[in-house]
Amino acid sequence: MTQHVKIPQDRIGVLIGEGGETLRRIERSAEVDLDVNSDDGAVAIEKTGDPLRGMKGPDIVRAIGRGFKPDAALSLLEDDMRLFETIDIERAARNDNDLRRKKGRLIGDSGRTRELIEELTGADVVIYGSTFGMIGGPNEVDVARSAAEMLLDGAPHGSVYSFLERKHVEELKHQGMEYHEFSG
Predict the structure, then answer these.
(1) 98, 81 in Cβ contact below 8 A?
(2) pLDDT for the residue numbered 146
(3) Cα(32)–Cα(49) distance, integer angstroms
(4) Cβ–Cβ < 8 Å for 64, 11
(5) Neighbouring-strand partners of residue 154
(6) Which residues form the K Homology domain (predicted)?
(7) What are the beta bridge partners of residue 134?
(8) Eight-state DSSP code of residue 7
(9) Which helix (H) or strand (E) holds 4?
């Protein structure tokens, strides 16, 4: 069974990699055959081996198309529970200026908000075009999605950071680690 995914033109080179290296790595790791049409960004994905690994093939291609580095996209194969999700920022925006403002809120000053979301959730996060993409475990993606939605709804950054810190502490406690807040 062949699945088709369309990715932006400017991400085709990343998908293929130098001398086709990334493409072959994806094919080998996910046990799929990829047929890339460089003219329109269409990618045909055919499963060739383990069906469970092959099911991740389209998500790996989509993730690269949405701005993730190949290593982050291939991390979807590390665990059956790893997910790739996107939020369409454009749907939350009223116009082009609002879209730019909302993207800016997600990115933060010098990329700090995006970095904090990554650090405190453990998810890989990318803002590309009009999408906010996340790769991680179910809880990581859920918390990252919630933080992004709070920012898109206009919540103050401080409130979102507090939410992320609280979730991070809860996760550490859940893992049985003791957490001591730095008071400096």
Answers:
(1) no
(2) 97
(3) 7
(4) yes
(5) none
(6) 1-82, 83-153
(7) 85, 125
(8) -
(9) strand 2-6
> Is 178 exposed, middle or buried, given 0-12, 13-18 or 19+ CB atoms closer than 10 A?
exposed
Alpha helices in 38-95 (DSSP H): 51-55, 57-65, 70-74, 89-92
Q: What gap in Å lies between CA 124 and CA 60, rounded to an integer? A: 13
**Alpha-carbon span 108 to 59, nearest angstrom:** 27
- Mean pLDDT, each 10-residue run in order, the chain (184 residues): 93 96 96 95 94 93 97 95 96 94 95 96 96 96 97 96 92 66 57
Structure tokens at 21: 């290296």
Q: How many CB atoms lie within 10 A of CB 127?
A: 21
Burial class (CB in 10 A: 0-12, 13-18, 19+), 109: exposed
With beta carbons less than 8 A apart as the criterion, state whether 31 and 37 touch: no
What phi and psi values does residue 134 have, to the nearest 5 degrees? -135, 140
Q: Give the separation between CA 96 and CA 93, rounded to whole angstroms.
A: 7
